[in-house]
Specification:
Distance between the termini: 61 Å
Strand content: 35-45%
Structural class: mainly beta
Order of helices and strands: EEEEEEEEEEEEEEEEEEEEEEEEEEEEEH
Number of strands: 29
Length: about 425
């Protein structure tokens, strides 16, 4: 069965050829990579099946996931367009990417060079550039709102809002005490925003309010602020408390907006009820690793492909990807890379190589599969194994084993024939 490789250093992709993977497969050839200095982030659009990747060397590449070069053993995907380092492009590594939520004609990138850029996917030219004068760790554009406000998590201790319509940085949301590392708009409430900071706090915001802040999440609170109706009506907002004991560098909403997932340098992932702010007390065990300053976002499986009431999460661990049940924390699957040992559990002094770090995950809309980006320069494609695939693999293994047995039988028959010929001859010793 073919493997998929993302080769960012060959010629641009010339032809279109459909494909399908049948297993969790990935390239084992070290010389094939999407970005030689490492892939910092990826994003997949919801409409045309295209992927963008941002490199540690500042380049941005556009990939059409349907355009591949087909060989007997692998499928190689090459970029259809590249934004190379120039006077008008990013000067340092790209930190985060996202497509416009309503079409894929444009995408937004941020970088360690303090710039937020808007690109056309047709020309790969920057149509707008915003200098926020501090490192931008991540940004978020609402999937439902019409206001076109880009929330930015920066080295500054406030969430910055950039208005794409007016072309200005409208205002800041003050509350964090140190750098903001992750931001995410609610998928159901267009003016509600969540942010995570290096001060260990996770804050909720309503940008329509004069004070904006709705309060903070407290990991010691498993009841929440219930209010008069049990759902927070007229409840007093919590202004003190921490979501984690260390920096929060990942904030993600479930697609129904009922839960918020946070990841932190304290090597914990927590799940929060967004109606009450209560800690859902999900526990994911000692395998979680998270030490890098950059944004690290768990990937939540779309609820429409799961059983009702079920939620699952892929976590980008150091040398592997972990799949958990989101609510009870059960480890469902470990996806490991070729030639990479499993990550040590917390407390083990053995450290994995940073070249194996998983930096970003992105779901392919409309399909049961996702892509992962890595600091070794690879982009890997993952799809689940079906019962039909398992049977096909067994048949192939049996066929290969049968061919091997037949070859051995032919060799054995040939040796026996030689032996018989020798025994028929009269041998004289002199």
């Amino acid at each position: 069965m073919p493997e998929i490789e993302f080769d960012g250093h060959g010629s641009l992709s010339p032809t279109t050829e459909s494909y399908r993977q049948y297993e969790y497969r990935r390239s084992t050839k070290d010389q094939i990579c999407a970005h030689r200095a490492g892939v910092n982030c990826i994003a997949v659009d919801r409409f045309e099946g295209r992927l963008i990747s941002g490199g540690a060397e500042s380049s941005v590449k556009l990939w059409d996931l349907a355009i591949v070069t087909n060989t007997q053993h692998q499928l190689t995907n090459r970029p259809t367009a590249v934004v190379k380092k120039s006077a008008t492009s990013h000067q340092y590594g790209v930190t985060h990417l996202c497509f416009y939520p309503f079409d894929s004609l444009a995408f937004i990138s941020s970088s360690y060079d303090h710039k937020l850029k808007v690109y056309s996917t047709e020309t790969m030219n920057a149509s707008a550039t915003f200098d926020l004068e501090s490192v931008i760790y991540s940004h978020s554009l609402s999937p439902i709102a019409s206001h076109l406000l880009v929330a930015c998590a920066t080295q500054h201790a406030a969430v910055r809002l950039v208005d794409l319509r007016s072309g200005s940085s409208t205002h800041s949301l003050a509350g964090h005490q140190r750098a903001v590392l992750s931001v995410a708009w609610s998928p159901h409430e267009e003016y509600i925003l969540a942010s995570g900071g290096s001060d260990g706090t996770t804050r909720l915001w309503d940008i329509r309010r004069s004070s904006s802040s709705l309060g903070v999440l407290d990991f010691e609170d498993s009841v929440g602020v219930v209010g008069e109706d049990g759902l927070g009506k007229n409840a007093r907002h919590r202004n003190h408390g921490k979501a984690h004991t260390d920096a929060v560098n990942g904030v993600v909403w479930t697609d129904d907006g009922q839960y918020l997932v946070t990841a932190s340098h304290d090597e914990r992932v927590r799940v929060w009820n967004t109606s009450t702010g209560a800690n859902a007390l999900s526990h994911f065990g000692p395998t979680i690793q998270n030490t890098h300053l950059s944004t690290l976002l768990p990937l939540l499986v779309p609820s429409n492909i799961l059983k009702p009431g079920k939620q699952a999460m892929f976590y980008p661990n150091q040398n592997e990807i972990l799949m958990f049940d989101l609510f009870d924390g059960t480890l469902l699957k470990r996806l490991r890379f070729p030639g990479v040992a499993a990550a040590p559990i917390r407390g083990n002094t053995t450290q994995g190589s940073p070249r194996n770090r998983t930096t970003s995950l992105a779901w392919k809309a409309g399909e049961v599969g996702f892509y992962s980006a890595h600091s070794d320069g690879a982009i890997r494609a993952w799809v689940p194994v079906t019962p039909e695939d398992i049977e096909a693999d067994k048949d192939m293994a049996q066929e290969a084993h049968g061919d091997e047995d037949e070859s051995r039988k032919r060799k054995r028959d040939a040796l026996e024939e030689v032996f018989r010929d020798l025994t028929r001859q009269k041998i004289t010793f002199t």
